[in-house]
Amino acid sequence: MTQAPVTPRATRRRHDREIVTLAVPAFGALVAEPLFLMVDTAVVGHLGTAQLAGLGIASALLVTAVSVFVFLAYATTAAVARRVGAGDLRAAIRQGMDSIWLALLLGAAVVAVVIPTAPTLVALFGSSDTAAPYATTYLRISALGIPAMLVVLAATGVLRGLQDTKTPLYVAVAGFIANGALNVGLVYGADLGIAGSAWGTVIAQAGMAVAYLYVVIRGARRHGASLRPNAAGIRASAQAGVPLLVRTLSLRAVLMIATAVAARLGDKDIAAHQIILSLWSLLAFALDAIAIAGQAIIGRYLGAGDTQGAREACRRMVQWGIATGAVLGLLVILARPVFIPLFTDDPTVQEAALPALIVVALAQPISGIVFVLDGILMGAGDGPYLARAMLLTLAIFIPAALLVPTLGGGLTALWGAMTLMMATRMLTLWLRSRSGLWIVTGATR
Prior knowledge:
Pfam families: MatE. Its main location: membrane. The chain is mainly alpha-helical. The chain has 2 domains: 10-229, no CATH class; 240-444, no CATH class. 84% of the residues lie in helices and 0% in strands. It is built from 16 helices and no strands. The protein has helices spanning 8-45, 49-67, 71-85, 89-124, 132-142, 146-161, 166-189, 194-223, 231-265, 267-303, 307-339, 347-362, 364-379, 383-402, 404-407, 410-435.
């Protein structure tokens, strides 16, 4: 009896199921992450203005220190997924353990730098004399949790590579609940003030790291993978992460430059910019969830040597990105009369934010393509190209953004420059995806 041929519709449905299965839990875990800071802000905010200002400075430094190492999740997802596709779960988990050891080493190095230099780092932010002591206290204590935070990134990459995005969601939700309870208990119950909030975050992050390690170690024992550090494997993980580090730093530079330009435009523009940037970041979570699915799915297909499956999955995920971006853009336009007043009652800020917000909404389909192709190329291990493309994008964005105050146009023109940045990324990523040069099969790239 001959087997019925697989129709394009059946293929699309299979890809849709895979994307939804991975992307929906990933979105939940991504949203849970910024909630940690929101809880800290809500608890510390009742201590006083100086404490809240100190938290703002310290958390900005902490987020920067951790976010530059996001490659621990991205590179690990791609490497582990390839080995899963090749059918070698033992090697997949061994690769994951190498990344976790790298995370511990990097975390220890960052702690060794941050704790003694905390007052200097806080001063660089121009903090007031009243806020600086609180910022230093929070930063020094919370820095102790950085190794755990980096382990969480690496272990999340391991599980995503193993096609499991549900466990990270469960751990993130449990961590969020624990962080909230610990913050309230230590800040008010134990009367530790802002130090209690920092300790609550450290303990919650350590608990999350332990939970991830339990899951990964259990898998390692099941498949006979070694838990010992391997110098060659750790070095390979670091080398794979360097291009993604360049990409991440370039993207961070774009956001910092945009904020600096907005500040030069005036108080109402920088206030409106922060509102729009917060929305832009929220929209990015939805699109990044599809990108995470892309990392895991593409890595698995290439590891299995299935180039046709990789191409079909790429095509389908791009369609998802465009559709999701269009829906998000429409929602932003419809919700704008309600959204902006949530953040400010100042009519001048609202007036500055409204046209820029429409630019962001119209650009969401472009963002959808960018996020998806970014994830696909990460899943393919095409980090060096992503680094070069992001450096080119940064080189185009810098003059466009710096000309905004000179040429006029205000905040709307600045977000036009941000859209130019995303369009440049889209073009570079689309050209790469069309070339097929990213399609390299095998357990390793």
